[in-house]
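Dear Dr. H.,

I hope your travels went smoothly. While you were away I took the liberty of generating a structure for the chain from your last submission, since the lab meeting agenda had it listed for discussion. I wanted you to have the full record in hand beforehand rather than looking at slides cold. The sequence, exactly as received, is reproduced here:
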Amino acid sequence: MKSSKVIASFSCFLIGDGTLLRECGNLLRTQNHTILGVITAADQQRNWAEQSNLKVIDPSSNYASVLRATPFDFLFSITSLKKIPARILKLPRRGAIN
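The corresponding predicted structure, in token form, is as follows:
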């Protein structure tokens, strides 16, 4: 008998600029995970996030304060070429994944 593994839903923030961010975001949403916000400077990803009613956060801002304000499980860095400071990588309850 094949066992079916159910992954409990989780909350996350996404950070990145490429189109893969949007694809992963859509996949996360179809699996009923909660995207609390998208940290991006790319117009395409910003437009997708806004159309999806997701909070858009400017990466040049003090986005650590936004992340700190809401407990979350994961930070997914998807096609982000900028180094994420260690203090931000420590914020998710379950982990940061590149």
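Two observations you may find useful: Helices lie at 19-30, 43-51, 63-69, 86-89. The radius of gyration is 14 Å.

With kind regards,
E. W.
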